[in-house]
Every structure is written in C-alpha cells, then in structure tokens.
C-alpha cells in the first residue's frame, strides 16, 4: 500500500484536532457539575457560581477561561436545548417607498402592492418584480423621477434609465438587509443569548435567527421588531454628575436600611426582582471593579450601595488626593452588576431625585481600562443631557447621508461620516457648543437603541457635515458602526414571518431519545459486523469507532449546530459507512473463493471495490450538498452531518481499515472474513430479475394508482405548515384527550380558519395546527392567536402546558414548496449527468433517473395510503424532503454498484455493450453477484432506522418512517426497476 506514512500522519493530525475540539465539552461539564454541587438545587446559586467562573482559567493545559470553553463546546440546536428560531423579513416595499420620499403616485403604490403579492406567491426578487409591475402600469414614466435627489446625485443621475434605477434599488436593498442584519445581531448580543446563530438567506430579504435557551417570546418580538433609532446627544461631564450620584448613594443607603428594618423578607424579594430584570445572559463575567468589592468591607458596601458596584472614574492628583477624571463617563461597572445599577435607578425614591434633564445609558462595548482586576469586563455609564421639552435628541439618524470605515492619521480604525444639509447645520451648532469653552471641552454621545457607541470629546466646531468617530475600535467594529450609522438613513422595518419555539422539557426528552437511539443503533451495527464477518468485522468496527470520533470532532471544530435530524444523519452515516467495508469484504471473499491467498485477496478486494465505493459515495455526497443548499434549519443540519460523515467514512473505511489489515498481515495474523454460517451466504444465487421485470412494473403501477386514488379521496397530501403556512402548537395535557372534542373547543375561538388536531405520540400530547390570523402582519397577531388558543384549551377543563410552537408565514411556505421542487428536480438532473458521464451510456442515465422518480412516487403513495391509519403523523414538511432525497441517495448507491459491475464485466469481455439474451444474462449476473452487498447494506441501515424509529421519539417518527419505507423501496427499485429498465431503454439490435 502506497502512502502509508502520509495516511498515518493525516490520521494523527486529524485525531489531535478532534481531541482538542471535543476537550472543551469535558472542561465545561466539570465546571457545571461543580456548580450543581455547590448550588444544591438552587438555580440562582448555580448561575452565580457560573458567573464567577466565567473569567477564571479552567482549561488545565492552555488556561482558557470558562466562557471561552463554553463558546467552543458542541452547539446544540433548539430541538435539543429549547429556545427560539425566528425568520425576519425586511420590508423592501417600505424601503422603496421611503427612497421615493413616500410618493402618493397611485401607479407607483399599486406596483409596490402587486410586487409584494407576487413575492408572497413564490417570487424571488422584490425589486425586479416592482420595476416590472411599474413599467406595466406606467410605460411612459421614468422611475428616476421618483428617486433622484441631491443626496444620491453621485449614484443616480437625473437622466438614469429604469435599468439603472433598478440596479440602484437592488444595491440599496442589499445594503439595507446587511445593515438590518448588523443591528439585529447587536441587539441579540445585548440580549445575552449564548451561542446565537444568525444567517442571511442569500437572494432573499430574510434573516434566520436561532436563540438557544430563550423562551420569552414577547420580549424577543420587541427586541427584534423595534425601530433602530440612531441619536446624537450632548452629555454631562463626570464632575457635573458626581453630586447626583452621591445623592443617589445616600438615598439608597437610607432606603435599603429602612426596608430591611421593616421587613427582611421584603428585602429578599427586592433582590429577586432585581435578578429577574437582568438580561437573559448566558455567561456574564464574574468581575470586580478596580476599587469596589475587593477593597471594601461588607459594612462599607451597606453604607454605600451604589458605590459598592459603581466606581466613579478618578485619578491621583499632584497633591496626592483623588480627583474626578474629566470626560463623559460617569461610572465604571462590572458587567454582572449592570442589572443591579439599573434596578437602583428605577426605584421610585431614586427616580424622584434624578433631574429630568438626565438620562443614564450604558456603553455598547466594555471599556479599555488596561488590565482590570480578574480580567473583568467593565462597562461605562453615561449621563445624557436632555435639552428639549419633548425629550427628543439634539440630532437624529436621519441626518446621516453616508458613513464608511476608515483609518485616522495614526493608522487606527475610525468611522468617517457625512450629513445632509439640515443635519450639517445642526451638527455645526452642536459641536460649536461642545467646544466653546477652551478650558472645558465637552463630549457628544452617538447612541443606537439607547446604547452609547462613542462619546468623543469635541475640540473644534465642525462645519460641512463631515466628521469622524474614533475609539477602542477594531477594523470590524468600524465596519459595523459605519453600517449602523447608515441605518438611520433608510427605514426598512423588520417583521417576524416565521418562528419556532421549543420548550426546555421537550428539548430534554429529545436529547434523551436521540442519544438512546444513537447508542443502540451503533451497538446493533457493531454486533452485526462482528457476527457476520468475524475478524474482518472487528476491523470494520474499529474503523467505525474512529469514524464516529472524527465526525463529532469535525462538527465541533466547524462550529456546526447539532440537531435531532443531525443525530439521525450521524446514525445513518454510520449505517452507510459499513457499505464501503461490505463492498470490500464481499470482493475479498470472491477472491478467496477463487483460491487466492489472503494477502492477495485483500489487495484485489480493495482494488476492485474502489470504483463502486467512489461512485456511490460521490452520488450521496452530491445529494447531501443539494439538500444543504435548498434546505434550512434542521434539514441543513442533517445535510451537514451527512456530507462530513461521507468524507470521514471514506477515509476510515478505505484507508484506516487498509492500514489495520496491513498491520495484521505483517503480524502473520489469521484474518477471517466470515464464519461457518455466513461464509457461504448468497452463493450460487441466479435469480432471473430481468425475466420478471414486467411483474415488477405492474406492482409499482398498482401502488402508484392506489396512491392517486387516496390522493383524490383525502383531498390531496397531508401538507405540514412548512408547505402551506400556519401555526402549530405541541400541547401536553394531564390526561388523555379526545382530538375531536379539543377541535370543537378550538373551532369556537379560531373562527373562519382551518384547524387540525392530532395526537403527537401519546394521547395526552396533541399537535394543534391552525391558519388563524396567519396572513395578519400586525405585531399583535401572535398574541391574539395565543389568547384564543388558551381560551379554547381552558374550556376543556384539563390542565395543559404548551411545550412548543411554530409559525410559518405564507411567503416562507411558498419558498419551501419551490425549494423542495427545485431540490428534487435538480438532484435528478445532476444524477443523470453523472451517470451518463461515468458510464458513457444514455440509457443507463435514463434508467437511474426513472428509478428516482419511481421511488419518489412510491414513497408519496405510501404516505397517502397510510395517512390516518398509522398512530403517528405523516405530514409532508421539510423533514420529508430530507427523507426523499436520502431515499434517492440509497437508490443511486445501489444502482451505481450494479452498473459498475456491468462495466467491469464488459471491460473483461473487451466489448462496448452486449445485446439480446447476452445482455439479459450480463445484467442478471451483475444483480446476483452484488446481491449480498445490496442485502447486507440494506439490512444494516434498516436495523439502524428501526432502532431510531422505536427509541428516537415522536418528533422524528414520521421522518424516520419515510426513510424506512424508502430503504425498502430503494432496495426493490435498484434490483427490480432501475437496472432491468436499461434493457427496455437500450438498443434492441442483436
């Protein structure tokens, strides 16, 4: 075997990377175990312990802190951890209208509305749809008349054509989506979500967001759908604010002392309330400010409650006395104490003594204070100066005409910005006022969503509307800030058009069921391989274990999110990975039957099996790639593990196992490829597949015909909300419920809508789907539907819990439908091209593609026939598309192996093709000679799927059922349809 040294080097290198990637889980697990032991069941104590460990080095070798390790561990998806999945849509209609200065032109507004309708119906490019509709309604009107103005004169000439306007609008739309993405990401980071996942759906105006661990829907809605407000404020200086802070501190000390003296239990309640107001932070760092908790005694903290957590910026004066530091920052506070300071400032007795012209705000980023004690994250507090009676800022984001990332004269990143004419005048006045006193230069704060991004000191009046913002910025910071500054220019409202909420209980159940199915399926395969192939089976098992280790390590190192379909994908990859070993072992057994010695048989077995292994794995990998491109969320998770697993499986099953065999041969070890019960299995089989092909055609036709009949009888397929839009809720009741009774109760509240109630596993778990208010874009629609749902469920008189809910808007549903069609058709085209190129015969490609369509129709037929008969849902959603494409992968794998054997025999005979009875014999020989591999591979995957079906939980039972019947259909199709049909499509000449 050539290249053994390189293979060993790659295996060791990959092993080191995987060990490093997986080691973070062991480190965080130990810290969290210690936290549980310390808390003894108290969640607040457990959180406090983890907060305290956030910046403490916990990784023995490298000294990484807990927060760093937590960010590097395996990311669990929402179905395993609980949380929210949200699809945001940026309103391009309102963006275009604002760019046209909110014109009242009837045709213009009609074109906007029609374009939106076509987008909802499955259209792709809103700008293209709008321009097309406008040209239909106003063929002699130039679009540039609506959009050209002084601010965009450089980009859009007054005589620009409609095509140029379209290009301008597309650019502005892309820019608005990018800026919206940055703003939403900033908000989520401030929300405190651990390991959020955000993706822009390329080619659309939508953003996908996953927030593990988040359950507060209403707060998330406000967070994501609120307006992004950019503001410029004058700020108070530190010296001006200190007396106010001192007064707050004294009032707090007196108030807290009185409260404790009157009722100690009430004080505890106040502390709880303070904690409840904290952000949903995953990992707030345990820190202390430079001169707070670590330097003050507990008694001093009681007498100075504010200054115990807030440090006033100061420095040592020439006289040896502490002096207040000049500048806009009025306080330094550890990240974990910001919620406590907020609670202090909201107390009624404190709010009453804060001057009305004061508005306190936090810095968006930690301050650069050198090396604070404990490596703390310290945030700065600012006192904004309110100068208007209505409380509005001195200057708003509408004043910004342009902003870009740049570098100052010292080469440090900065943001350059330009303002509109009106904005320039106000900015000149603001900067003039701030710099008027040469001995007391003041600052201006740049604020987005009530967080201070920068508060630079103004040295001189700035005329012309051009300025720059400097600070503790990286290049990425300035790029983001430039986009944020521009966000104030073009209002593009964002709305939630799809969401999926999973409760933590459902997540724990999914984890348990998923892991149980995974372990059991793995054990089933190990036992089967060891029993069937004896010592060679143990070599395959070793390769499987290494393969699993590599898959998990690669997934973690890439930061992939592990979902329940992802676990199913890993288990399926393990089942499919034995296919390569089975191909090799069966070829080795053929060589041994011919009387060749074991070393030669092993060498020849690997050599002859390689072509089939490469072809079959390439076809499945291509399908996985298509699935990843067309799928979203869980489907992409399945595709990711499938593609990674195929690459890893090839490396382990072919190269690692070959190294082990070489080592065993060097040790003169006796290598067996079966036992007395299995060594002669599938020998001397000569089944006439070709001769019975018309019978198989008839069987398939009858099943498809029955599917059509039941399709008509059932008024179509049982489409999930993925394909038609709606809301779905999983509700757990304290006892078994009658679905019709629950449906009757809900129909009384869900008026003029379609409502479906089915069991979701047990009879006390119901899946409720409704289209009630699904087309309503009002922000209160979700709350209205939930209120109606709770009203209907309460009328049942049984205690219930809503464990998860999902919302898919009509536009998302139409995209999924077209995406599913595209995935299936595109994959068929790719498979056809691949087969024709590899086997150089058109009838082979046609046979393979006809078999693919045959499999899809059979799976759909069985779903239609058995819907309502089986005790679990057979909805057709995104997971079903994943199952269909996987079934197609099975069929292609089986078919390619048979085609490869035909090609091999043709090469041996020295002929390009055979005809008549000679061709029939050749195809029957190829099918029978590969039958052992076909049956064994099918059985291993079938065993795996049965285990997952039984133990994997109700949430993926329909998905696994599709794979189960698909596995059976795929095996049947490859033996009885795809290869025999080559005869009927081929040249008839003798």
UniProtKB/TrEMBL annotation:
Protein name: Multifunctional fusion protein
NCBIfam families assigned to the protein according to its UniProt record, in alphabetical order: 2A0604s01, PRK13024.1-5, secD, transloc_SecF
Top-rank taxon: Bacteria
Subcellular location: Cell membrane
Protein's organism: Pedobacter frigoris
An annotated Gene Ontology molecular function: protein-transporting ATPase activity
Residue ranges occupied by any Protein export membrane protein SecD/SecF C-terminal domain in the UniProt entry: 499-665, 792-987
Family affiliation: Belongs to the SecD/SecF family. SecF subfamily.
Chief location bin: membrane
